[in-house]
Design brief:
It contains twelve helices and six strands. By secondary structure, it is α/β, with parallel strands linked by helices. The chain folds into two domains: 5-131, Rossmann fold (3-Layer(aba) Sandwich), CATH 3.40.50; 140-211, DNA polymerase, domain 1. A six-stranded mixed beta sheet has the order 2-1-3-4-5-6, with helices on both faces. α1 (17-23) crosses α6 and α8 crosses α9 (168-178).
């Protein structure tokens, strides 16, 4: 198994976070990064700021420049603010204007903000981002419990929404178009692709799941899904 890894800016070498990452069995590679402090993948990067520096960067405008740079380079930019949040009142000139600036920069550049208390927590947060970097949303139909005590239309909606890539909205649209769950399940891949909002890729996934032969181990034991 390949150990988790992260590329770290040279200027972060002495902040304590790389050392803590190594303790978490994360392989650290140092480089002079033009953007961000920690690069997790081609999509994910992290800018880390100690709380006093974060506050001053809000007031002198550096945060807006850095936010623009990281959001332009990475699809999922993160900002980790490290320090005791109780000190915020003493560090800010005007708490309302401060939160206004933070709201503006995070919303404008789609920054995901994480607060940590110290280097150890920052490392734990980065390690978690590495571990779950391939996480994807769980379809609503899978998350929800089967509506056993509900009425028939709700049970039908639940059944169709459990198909790969089909949530409640699409399930309702498909049932409105074809009338019954059986008709929905019997659609060909090309017919599925014609459903507005479904598309070719999800249609192919649904068709594959419905047509694939269910396989069990030779000993007859229940098949277990491998967790990545």
């Amino acid at each position: 198994m390949i150990p988790p890894r992260v590329v770290v800016d040279e200027r972060e070498r002495s902040c304590g976070v790389p050392e803590q990452l190594s303790k978490l069995n994360v392989r650290v590679y140092f480089s002079r990064l033009p953007v961000a402090d920690y690069v997790i993948s081609p999509e994910i990067a992290v800018e880390r700021k100690a709380l006093p520096d974060f506050v001053s960067s809000v007031y002198d405008g550096r945060l807006f420049v850095q936010a623009s740079a990281i959001s332009s380079s990475y699809r999922k930019p993160y900002l980790i603010v490290e320090g005791d949040i109780k000190e915020l009142t003493n560090l800010t000139k005007n708490i309302n204007s401060y939160y206004g600036a933070v709201a503006s920069v995070t919303l404008a550049y789609d920054l995901r903000v994480i607060h940590t208390a110290d280097a150890a927590q920052t490392a734990a947060a980065i390690a978690a981002l590495i571990q779950h970097s391939h996480a994807r949303p769980v379809p609503v139909g899978i998350m929800a419990a089967p509506p056993k005590a509900r009425d028939e239309p709700q049970q039908q909606l639940y059944l169709v929404s459990s198909l790969p890539g089909v949530g409640t909205k699409l399930a309702r649209r498909m049932l409105s178009m074809y009338g019954t769950p059986r008709k929905v399940m019997s659609l060909t891949e090309s017919q599925l692709a014609m459903v507005q909002g479904l598309g070719n890729k999800r249609a192919a996934r649904i068709a594959h799941m419905l047509d694939a032969t269910y396989m069990t181990p030779k000993d007859g034991a229940p098949r277990q899904e491998k967790l990545e």
